[in-house]
């Protein structure tokens, strides 16, 4: 009788030990998993939307009309140096960093589009170029950029008005404003359109 009772106690002890041992192990693994999640969250770095970025123009954009040269022959037709819808490129001037981590490296390429081009005209009208930077390329990814820039040539409106008064309306036609241009190396500031969120392993690659 005593032997059966001892065997029963021993069996119950083994069962309880097995069950609580598994629960304890699962609890330990759960704690480790939570720790890993917290660690991953801490590694995320966010560059806020509307962060200003300074870009430098890679190539001159201009409204003036120049003669088209084909081989040794000079075509009498004229064509704009810059046309609506053309793509242009810019380069990031300085590293864009958060807490010492470089999010957008210096030299990253910005890609934009010519929205409109207007040449100079009579009555002192100046030339105009309107451009928009669409995105910046960073480590194989594209991040949208917000902002439009309008470049104007120097107008001659006052001079044209004076010419009209002195010599009549016909004189104003021959008084033209200046063409507009954005020379290579010109620095323009645009802003990020959305938050840029990177994991730590994506930074500095």
Give the structure's gist in a few sentences.
By secondary structure, this protein is an alpha+beta fold.
Report what the structure shows.
Helices cover 28% and strands 40% of the residues. It is of the alpha+beta class and 205 residues long. The strands form 5 sheets. A 6-stranded antiparallel β-barrel has the order 2-6-9-10-11-14. It has a two-stranded antiparallel ribbon with strand order 1-15. A two-stranded antiparallel sheet has the order 3-13.
Going by helix content, strand content and strand pairing, the class is alpha+beta
What are the segments in which pLDDT stays under 50 over at least 5 consecutive residues?
A: 28-32, 67-79, 155-174
- What percent of the residues sit in helical stretches (DSSP H or I)? 25-40%
Distance between the termini: 75 Å
Radius of gyration: 34 Å
Give the overall pLDDT as a whole number. 75
Strand order of the largest sheet: 2-6-9-10-11-14
Strand count, sense and closure of the main sheet? 6 strands, antiparallel, barrel
Q: How many alpha or pi helices?
A: 3
Helix-strand pattern:
HEEEEEEEEEEEEHHEEE
How would you describe the shape?
rod-shaped
Strand content: 35-45%
E-strand count: 15
